[in-house]
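User: Design a sequence. Structure:
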């Protein structure tokens, strides 16, 4: 996925005109796990809509596998097969009578043969940890967390090589959150590209290879979690935080510890404390 000088203006020429994206350029390599962070209204959702060709660039260019999505005659079905987008609160978009029909919706639109559709529905439900029997149930009979999993299964059923998720854990309890994050991680471990918008600095620190930081429609920073979370002041200035363990490491150092500067996950912290406290920590 590559974006060049992309600008997006909502309601141009009206009193509500908003520049949601302002000259954004970025490049994502195959197999990367990208975290996208930024304050509310910074342009995250608008940015990912372009990657799935839901918006077509008027100013700038969006490429997927070298194909310019704004060019005339682009095969959008092929692009949507390649790129799967899980919207924020995707469960609100369940609409079929049964779970099975809902999950089958995407593969059907791709024009896959009946037998292949059935197989991909089965596979996708298994991937999100739902019993096959649930395929006969109404999506509305499920719990919130289950509905979200059904909605995600509907995207995974198309086996996208690039999976984009807009705050996939928003509103879920800790169990539901872990479940979804593990699922995303598993998808990535199979070599797929992930682009995940998140409010959780902890989650992106733990999972992302690189982080894009959006601020007022601009791509303000990009880098590895280490690079991004070492800029605590810059992040705070644009309404963002560092992971809690990063702050904690700073406070422990103020108390006389000598922990390294790149502690961003619980794992980092555990290792650093074990090293600092020697054998005692292991006991
Ligand atoms: P984020 O996902 O980071 O919260 P969005 O991409 O949703 O940001 O929004 C970026 C800006 O565009 C915000 O100022 C928002 O109010 C505005 N915006 C988003 N969607 C629309 C829309 N459909 N019509 C008008 N303005 C919009
Ligand atoms: Mg958003």
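Assistant: Done.
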């Amino acid at each position: 996925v590559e974006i060049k000088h992309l600008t997006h203006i909502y309601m141009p020429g009206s009193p509500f005109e908003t520049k949601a994206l302002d000259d954004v350029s970025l490049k994502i390599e195959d197999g990367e796990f990208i975290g996208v962070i930024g304050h509310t209204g910074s342009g995250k959702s608008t940015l990912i809509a372009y990657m799935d060709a839901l918006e077509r660039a008027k100013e700038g260019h969006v490429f997927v596998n070298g194909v310019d999505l704004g060019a005339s005659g682009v095969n959008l079905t092929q692009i949507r097969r390649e790129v799967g987008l899980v919207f924020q609160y995707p469960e609100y978009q369940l609409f079929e009578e049964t779970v099975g029909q809902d999950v089958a919706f995407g593969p059907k639109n791709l024009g896959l043969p009946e037998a292949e559709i059935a197989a991909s529905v089965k596979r996708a439900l298994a991937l999100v940890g739902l019993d096959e029997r649930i395929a006969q149930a109404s999506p509305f009979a499920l719990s919130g967390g289950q509905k979200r999993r059904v909605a995600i299964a509907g995207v995974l059923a198309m086996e996208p090589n690039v999976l984009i998720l807009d705050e996939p854990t928003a509103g879920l309890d800790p169990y539901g959150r872990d479940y979804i994050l593990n699922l995303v991680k598993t998808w990535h471990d199979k070599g797929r590209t992930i682009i995940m918008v998140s409010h959780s600095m902890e989650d992106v620190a733990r999972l992302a290879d690189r982080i894009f930081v959006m601020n007022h429609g601009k791509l303000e920073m990009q880098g590895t979690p280490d690079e991004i979370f070492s800029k605590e002041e810059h992040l705070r200035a644009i309404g963002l935080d560092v992971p809690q363990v990063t702050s904690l490491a700073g406070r422990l150092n103020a108390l006389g510890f000598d922990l390294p500067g790149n502690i961003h996950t619980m794992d980092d912290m555990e290792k650093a404390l074990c090293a600092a406290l020697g054998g005692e920590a292991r006991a």
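The chain has a mean pLDDT of 94. Strands lie at 2-10, 18-27, 33-38, 59-64, 67-68, 83-86, 162-166, 193-197, 210-215, 218-223.
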